Amino acid sequence: MQIYLPIAEVSVNAFLLLGLGGMVGVLSGMFGVGGGFLMTPLLFFIGIPPAVAVATEANQIVASSFSGVLAHLRRKTVDLRMGTVLLIGGLIGAALGVLLFNYLKSLGQVDLLVRLCYVVFLGVIGALMFVESLNAIRKTAKGTAMPTRKKHGLIHKLPFKMRFRVSGLYISVIPPLLVGLLVGVLAAIMGVGGGFIMVPAMIYLLGMPTKVVVGTSLFQIIFVTAFTTMLHATTNYTVDVVLAVLLLVGGVIGAQIGTRIGVRMKAEQLRILLAIMVLAVCGKLAFDLLVMPSELYSIGASEGH
């Protein structure tokens, strides 16, 4: 069933969009990521302009993350205090990111920037997560006890310490604020919740327990992506409501399924699966950038059959 998207100015299959939304919703519930790092490139692949994909996907992430957070709140695996600190940094970052996005859009460079950001970030994060997860699985298989994260180092010498009881931490608020800031900028420029950076940062940088990370990440993502969507809608007019609704419906249903699957899997298994997906999307985007430059097709894109 073909449906016309007024802002994107293309026709796509409605069931394809529902399916994509559902798939990304499952990932959201399983891994604590908004799923935008996968959905936005997938939207590029089916012909949605990058500026519209980024702004609209931020909207879809709000719904799938909200659905996932409700499931985690019932299990008491959300650190609301940590989530609030991350959120403050995230809102500042989102505002800065939208300003940068608008500036690059005025220069006509935003499509290339979005794609390059994806290739770089997904490549680095995916590779790091994959190597770490493989090591963790090997050690578990050999019966070697996983080394406990050291509670000292630069992060624990910083001032403005706060106690985060749910996470069992007493650390400075500066690192969570900076992580939130970076994720906010990425949400605005790349149309992502930033979970693919936030989840590893919360585990390895802040030392949070994996079971608390997923729900806390989703809690922060909801507000940052909602704020980003509002800024894009009012400054760029690139939010396609029809596209957003179809992705939303699929995403909300998928997130509930994903949360149930995630609870039954080990942390190392979840991380290696996420790493493989990140690297696969990165590879496809890099391939498209190198082999099929979109400029070749743009001249005749508006011609009818």
TrEMBL record:
It comes from the Bacteria. It is found in: Cell membrane; Membrane. The chain crosses the membrane at residues 12-39, 85-104, 116-137, 185-205, 212-231, 237-258, 270-287. Keywords: Cell membrane, Membrane, Transmembrane, Transmembrane helix. It is a multi-pass membrane protein. GO terms for cellular component: plasma membrane. Belongs to the 4-toluene sulfonate uptake permease (TSUP) (TC 2.A.102) family. PANTHER family: MEMBRANE TRANSPORTER PROTEIN MJ0441-RELATED (PTHR43701), MEMBRANE TRANSPORTER PROTEIN YTNM-RELATED (PTHR43701:SF12). This is Probable membrane transporter protein.
